[in-house]
Design a protein that fits this description.
alpha+beta, Cathepsin B, Chain A, 25% helix, binds 2-acetamido-2-deoxy-beta-D-glucopyranose, Peptidase C1A papain C-terminal domain-containing protein, Papain-like_cys_pep_sf, signal
């Protein structure tokens, strides 16, 4: 009994998120850069002119650009129950922070519907839900189907509600899986919103390996998502400051959002947002030694450029909102 408990605890340490891991199946082999480019959409890496060292500052932090934060709120992927959904939290933070950057920091922060991705993407063979996934699953889903915000669905850390459709060979979530509303007096009380406000991606793909390409992408366009290897020392032992891995951990099992970089007491670091709640690390963030591929952080990063055109049409008055159907064209709206 005691042995089983120890084993269970070790198993948890080894599987924070299963980024790239697929339950009991072996993790697919790491992809080459060319294979990742082949999975991309409208691949537009930052041009080499932007990569000149003199165009990139010594430190950068999207949480503090001349005193302003361009980051949307932090999340905890593990409530109301454990779910290996780091892949979607880190990737959606990248998209919603880049939306905030596109807004120039003005207006209301967009919080994307994590639950819709969790319950719908596996139907299209994009991710394995709470058992793991990749940034390309998130960006690929958003490119194909678009994603509403959390006003359509709250996070449940549960991927099971629509999984039966996959067994029936259905690859697209019904409207009930994408946006719902409940209204007193309405029959049925809860109903699907056919046309909610959604966001997409115009371009996504891998960031070339290494510090310079990562910095150029972050500085020019916004935060990126990277895979890392974790381990007990980081998960349970991190108490602030720059984390340096002394265990040579290489088993990649987690995805995080890199929001900037700097140097502390002579040690260069990446500033990283985690998705384990603000009670972990430094307000939910941590610093990781930079330039040494610590925890494999400089090997497998992805960018995405958000598509906010639907929001713009609503702001311009071309689309108007409604309780029954969601967004409708202004000239077709009932008065
Ligand atoms: C998902 O994968 C299964 C098994 O390989 C396949 O039969 C199915 O057609 C795929 N569905 C989609 C939407 O790609
Ligand atoms: C980690 O790698 C370094 C450099 O190869 C080596 O000196 C060190 O002993 C390794 N540490 C562990 C715990 O394996």
């Amino acid at each position: 009994m005691k042995g089983a408990l120890v084993f269970a605890a070790l198993a948890v340490f080894a599987m924070e998120c299963e980024a790239g891991g697929y339950g009991d199946n072996p993790r697919p082999a790491a992809k080459t850069f060319e294979e990742k480019v082949a999975m991309s959409y409208n691949y537009e890496p930052i041009g080499s002119n932007d990569m000149r060292a003199n165009s990139i500052p010594d430190s950068w932090d999207w949480n503090d650009v001349d005193g302003n934060s361009y980051l949307a709120p932090s999340w905890n992927q593990h409530i109301p129950k454990y779910c290996g959904s780091c892949w979607l939290h880190s990737s959606l933070s990248v998209v919603q922070d880049r939306i905030k950057i596109m807004h120039g920091g003005d207006g209301i922060d967009v919080m994307l519907a994590r639950q819709v991705l969790l319950q719908c993407a596996p139907l299209a063979n994009l991710s394995n839900g709470c058992k793991g996934g990749e940034p390309s699953d998130v960006f690929g889903y958003m490119q194909k189907y678009n994603l509403p915000d959390e006003g359509c669905f709250v996070y449940k850390a549960d991927d099971t509600d629509f999984m039966h459709l996959k067994k029936e060979g259905i690859s697209e979530c019904p409207a009930e899986g994408r946006c719902v509303n409940c209204m007193t007096g309405h029959k049925p009380e809860c109903y699907a919103i056919e046309n909610p406000l959604t966001y997409g991606v115009k371009s996504f793909g891998p960031v070339p390996e290494g510090e310079d390409a990562m910095k150029a992408e972050i500085y020019n366009r916004g935060p990126i998502v990277c895979s890392i290897a974790t381990g007990k020392a980081l998960d349970y032992g991190y108490r602030g400051g720059v984390f340096i891995d002394v265990n040579n951990v290489t088993d990649v099992d987690h995805d995080i959002e890199v929001v900037g970089w700097g140097e502390e007491d002579g040690v260069p670091f990446w500033k990283i947002r985690n998705s384990w709640g603000t009670f972990w690390g430094e307000l939910g963030f941590f610093k990781l030694r930079r330039g040494t591929n610590e925890l494999q952080v400089e090997k497998d990063c992805w960018y995405a450029v958000p598509d906010i055109s639907m929001e713009k049409e609503m702001l311009d008055g071309k689309l108007v909102g409604s309780m029954e159907k969601g967004l409708v064209k202004k000239d077709e709206a009932e008065l």
